[in-house]
């Protein structure tokens, strides 16, 4: 295979590092960019790393940076995005960027739909895909009207999850009863638009993700799936401990849904099996590589590399089968999530250590590129401490208001 085309990765989180290591270890030349804070944590020896403007507040500057980089190279590079913000930026500027980069994305309205949870729910409804009941809440007056139709516990979720998580490290908040919801809604509302969603019961083991790579003609080039075992933040978050598995029902539902929607390029669909009726319920879609996608390479289906070969017109052979039973571990997140669960469940540290057994792929730890692991671990521990202080302040404030 020819590896002389440069790849440019926008993202230096663990997701982006997974892309970079997959390509860099094959000798593919790489540039990687992210905003200053994430750059400092994730810069890696496998890429020429740099700081870039924020894709939301510095669009024109980021566009100029990417055009200038492409013009300095002998031929059009392949462009990867590892976060929702960068996916949206590329999609929004796709017509201009396509003159300088190779990339493959679904239509822009689909990108917008999967970033806005209100529109995502409508997609599932339109295609008759079972999913949790979802209610839009714009203000406290609407909350009072909806609260009588809700069953508890339920979930309070941000409409735009990637924006919400920048301000508060939470993907969803469990509301045990109507009183808690009324009390805490104003606090969470300050961080962004919110919706209420039915809680699908059951542990993380009931959650599956199906990743696909479709070419421009919607032919399936890559297929990979896994089962979540732990999440960060605890209970509602991204994978912290994941195992590669293959389930034909999940694959059929995920692949058919993504193909029907027209999800060209790399994407992933998440489902949770509802113990009440045994049905798989659709949760969300990401129009990009996802956090634990690097496990695909360990299991014989390297989606990042397949994408590179596809975009450089090297006609990769489809990879639709995988090795099962290998774990992916984001060590610091698995630790922090398990520590939180010990407060609510009978989880012992012996059980946690046993979860590390078996064949595994680490999110960041690597002997040939160790610094991203140590910088990330330190950052997570500091942020965990700050977040716990923020939550305590919120609880204190709410208690004082009750008094």
UniProtKB/TrEMBL annotation:
InterPro entries: ATP-grasp, ATP_grasp_subdomain_1. The keyword Nucleotide-binding applies. Keywords: ATP-binding, Nucleotide-binding. Residues 121-312 form the ATP-grasp domain. This is Carbamoyl-phosphate synthase. It comes from Niallia oryzisoli. The lineage of its organism: Bacteria, Bacillati, Bacillota, Bacilli, Bacillales.
